[in-house]
């Protein structure tokens, strides 16, 4: 093992307990010493380190929970049960793979694409619980991934009958019993919510088993808080729809996650921001002050228990209900303490800008704060807050004039039943005055100077310009791989910019967001380098076995003359990082990625992903941070700081925007109001961009209100660059010819329309895309792209879009600028 692997794994192991969330605790844990332990459950031996898909990471070894406990000195008394469960799971998996292949053949879709991210439900079983010991641990495990969404059925969102039965039996049988959740998303725990000890372990990367053993023995302690609301499946709102292959309607508007639950009075099992530990805390607000629009809350946090620990102080604000309805409260700021020993106190300050809480007013086409009382609440979860102050705004303030960048979604957003309900008078709390003048912000940002870069591209031919705005696609089948393995410079990396322009170096792009995804073992012969083991294994590799012709570039047998390794560090999933509520730690994890980017020669990391947890069914939620845009945006910004502290390395935030389901992802349309988009789904991107200027941004596959995000000049030029002042590179997600279908209501994005809209890099590119660009360049007067509304219009759409030489040069110049910046 290389030294960087040893060092980075040590950092991950030491810090991942901050991701673990104790949902229930009766004081039975931690254990004082390793002893005899009864270990059960799917995740005990088959521990899941993270989600599947293009963001999978090839660490040299993943420590399972079974292995971690044995490393720590535990004697496991349930080896026969674990062996028997292996047999059950293996048989279930064979049936699952065979069924996927059969259904893929019926659909006429390559099996690797059809089955990408498919959820294999946990099997039912009937095995005797014969283990003994000082305690028992049952590990529920779930898998999810890119390409498919989760389902509200047993073995996925719902517990199986077998799981419920065994958890209940073990909880009654053992004085010390711990239910452990090795999951990437919400599981309905309502049938077992009475269990006295429940730990959300999450999916923590390569050192997960050792980190769990550390926590079980009290060598470290859990200090995480939920970044999304956990409750019974039937309690989640069904106001908007989810999973329709054509049209998804975000009718719930701004009422997502805790904004919904707190506003309609539905009590979840475990609220947003909630988390216990091995100790308890008291939070006392000492002062509230303001400096123009900046509001600061000072609090004293006292450890009232017997163990060391960390606490998160959360500040929420309840805006007045005026013309615009408002949720009960929104997260305005937070701070995690350092370690506080038993009996000790730490002072923390949470500062937020009231202007950041502005709402979109469609009538004024502006972000506004309406006149009235802004009630400040402080607590340790969204359901544990107390009013500590009121900010008074005497007149409505226009914070920013903006532009309408989205078409009408075709519906009116849901409004909370509590809208306009009388609010209590808070006469006994401090009051802070803020004026409208304090809240005014600039309406637009200065454009980036492209003069030097334009000089560079002005002498290029049309053909060279077309190559410059496409990935370095060559003629390899591998470069059109659905999971992105298009780089010949770094084997297994997602792709690279063109090598066709003399004197202009290429940028290497590697997938994320749980680390770098590269081929772990590489061979080299007279024809070049190739993967000895592909970058993506698991289910994808199994399904690819019967698809050799389509994947010939990946599987052709070759004898290496030499070989080498490219193992990287698997980090916690995005949701687990957000559960730390620790921006310093997020930055530290970004630093690990930046160091490995330097080691392997990667310039842009295709991460972090900042889409929101709109629905717990989204198959890609594990990559995303939270249901809240502030927590998501600040976590992404912290990771960006860690990566971009390394010269020549950058992040690529994604997927811009409303990539909240995987069903039919190239052709689905998200219908969302401008207000919900700006206050939630675009807000997380805005926070990251305004805070830390990521070097890259990736657009999403989906359309918003009838227009592909990658083909929307309103989103890319007006909002992203003019309003937010974004200065980095904009690229598409991987638009692969073989993935596109012509029988859909909405056609897929095309190269010419994306370049025209301001999306300067179409990835990974192919010869058809180059021909599309050349044809568009030679067709005369420009016509808008991205407006077609039936699958049969794909060809007509390609014929209607045209480019001017000036438009193509502008996008090419932007690529030259970012290449110079990173190379």
Structure, described:
- This protein is an alpha/beta fold.
- It has 4 domains: 3-222, Rossmann fold (3-Layer(aba) Sandwich), CATH 3.40.50.1700; 268-439, Immunoglobulin-like; 451-518 and 571-822, Alpha-Beta Barrel (TIM Barrel), CATH 3.20.20.300; 519-565, no CATH class.
- It is 28% helix and 19% strand.
- It contains 23 helices and 30 strands.
- The strands form 7 sheets. Strands 1-6-5-4-2-3 form a 6-stranded mixed beta sheet, with helices on both faces. Strands 19-20-24-25-27-30 form a 6-stranded mixed beta sheet.
- Strand 21 and strand 22 (528-533) form a beta hairpin.
- Helix 3 (65-71) crosses helix 7 (208-216) and helix 11 packs across helix 21 (767-777).
- Mean pLDDT is 92; it is low at 548-555 and 780-792.
């Amino acid at each position: 093992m290389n030294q960087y692997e040893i060092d980075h794994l040590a950092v991950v192991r030491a810090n991942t307990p901050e991701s673990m969330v104790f949902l229930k605790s009766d004081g039975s844990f931690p254990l004082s010493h390793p002893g005899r332990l009864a270990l059960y459950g799917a995740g005990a031996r088959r521990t899941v380190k993270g989600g599947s898909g293009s963001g999978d990471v090839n660490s040299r070894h993943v420590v399972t929970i079974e292995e971690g406990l044995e490393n720590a000195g535990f004697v496991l008394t349930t080896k026969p049960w674990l062996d028997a469960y292996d047999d059950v799971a293996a048989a279930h998996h064979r049936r699952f793979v065979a069924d996927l292949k059969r259904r893929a053949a019926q659909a006429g879709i390559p099996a690797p694409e059809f089955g990408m991210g498919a959820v294999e439900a946990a099997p039912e079983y009937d095995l005797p619980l014969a283990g003994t010991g000082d305690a028992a641990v049952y590990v529920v495990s779930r898998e999810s991934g890119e390409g498919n969404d989760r389902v509200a059925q047993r073995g996925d969102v719902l517990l199986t009958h077998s799981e419920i039965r065994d958890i209940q039996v073990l909880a009654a049988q053992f004085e010390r019993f711990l239910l452990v959740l090795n999951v990437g998303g919400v599981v309905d725990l309502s049938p077992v919510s009475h269990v006295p000890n429940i730990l959300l372990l999450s999916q923590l990367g390569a050192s997960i088993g050792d980190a769990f053993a550390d926590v079980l023995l009290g060598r470290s302690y859990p200090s995480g808080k939920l970044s999304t609301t956990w409750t019974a499946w039937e309690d989640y709102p069904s106001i908007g729809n989810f999973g329709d292959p054509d049209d998804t309607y975000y009718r719930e508007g701004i009422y997502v996650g805790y904004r919904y639950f707190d506003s309609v009075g539905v009590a979840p099992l475990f609220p947003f921001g909630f988390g216990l530990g091995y100790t308890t805390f008291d939070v006392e607000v000492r002062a509230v002050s303001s400096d123009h629009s900046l509001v600061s809350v000072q609090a004293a946090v006292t450890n009232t228990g017997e163990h060391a620990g960390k606490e998160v102080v959360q500040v929420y604000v309840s805006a007045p209900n005026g013309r615009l309805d408002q949720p009960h409260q929104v997260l305005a700021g937070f701070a995690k303490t350092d370690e506080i020993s038993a009996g000790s106190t730490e002072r923390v300050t949470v500062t937020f800008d009231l202007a950041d809480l502005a709402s979109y007013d469609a009538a004024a086409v502006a972000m506004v704060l309406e006149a009235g009382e802004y009630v400040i609440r402080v607590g340790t979860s969204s359901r544990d807050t107390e009013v500590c102050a009121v900010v008074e705004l005497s007149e409505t303030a226009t914070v920013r004039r903006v532009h309408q960048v989205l078409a009408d979604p075709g519906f009116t957003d849901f409004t909370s039943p509590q809208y306009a309900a009388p609010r209590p008078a808070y006469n006994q709390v401090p009051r802070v005055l803020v004026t409208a003048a304090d809240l005014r912000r600039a309406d637009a940002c200065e454009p980036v100077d492209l003069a030097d870069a334009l000089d560079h591209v002005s002498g290029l031919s049309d053909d060279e310009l077309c190559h410059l705005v496409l990935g370095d696609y060559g003629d390899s089948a591998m470069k059109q791989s659905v999971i992105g393995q298009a780089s010949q410079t770094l084997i297994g990396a997602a792709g690279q910019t063109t090598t066709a322009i003399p004197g202009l170096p290429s940028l290497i792009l590697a997938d994320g967001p749980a680390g770098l995804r590269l081929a772990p073992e590489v061979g080299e012969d007279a024809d070049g380098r190739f993967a000895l083991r592909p970058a993506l294994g698991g289910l994808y590799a199994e399904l690819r076995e019967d698809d050799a012709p389509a994947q010939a570039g990946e599987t052709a047998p070759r004898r290496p003359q030499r070989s080498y390794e490219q193992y990287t560090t698997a980090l916690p999933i995005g949701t687990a990082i957000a559960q730390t509520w620790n921006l310093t730690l997020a930055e530290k994890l970004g630093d690990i990625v930046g160091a490995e980017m330097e080691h392997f020669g990667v310039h842009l990391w295709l991460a972090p992903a900042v889409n929101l947890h709109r629905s717990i069914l989204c198959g890609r939620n594990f990559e995303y941070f939270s249901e809240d845009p502030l927590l998501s945006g600040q976590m992404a910004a912290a990771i960006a700081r860690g990566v971009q502290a390394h010269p020549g390395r950058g992040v690529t935030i994604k997927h811009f925007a409303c990539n909240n389901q995987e069903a039919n992802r190239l052709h689905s349309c998200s219908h969302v109001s401008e207000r919900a988009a700006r206050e939630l789904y675009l807000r997380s991107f805005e926070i990251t961009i305004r805070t830390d200027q990521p070097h890259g941004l990736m657009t999403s596959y989906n359309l918003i209100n009838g227009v592909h995000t990658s083909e929307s000049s309103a989103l890319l030029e007006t909002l992203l660059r003019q309003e937010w002042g974004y200065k980095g590179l904009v690229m598409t997600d991987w638009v692969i010819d073989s993935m596109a279908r012509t029988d859909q209501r909405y056609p897929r994005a095309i190269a010419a329309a994306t370049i025209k809209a301001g999306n300067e890099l179409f990835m990974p590119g192919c010869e058809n895309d180059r021909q599309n660009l050349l044809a568009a360049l030679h067709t005369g007067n420009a016509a808008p792209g991205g407006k077609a509304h039936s699958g049969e219009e794909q060809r007509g759409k390609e014929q209607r879009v045209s480019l001017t030489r000036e438009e193509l040069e502008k996008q090419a110049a932007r690529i030259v600028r970012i290449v110079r910046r990173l190379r």
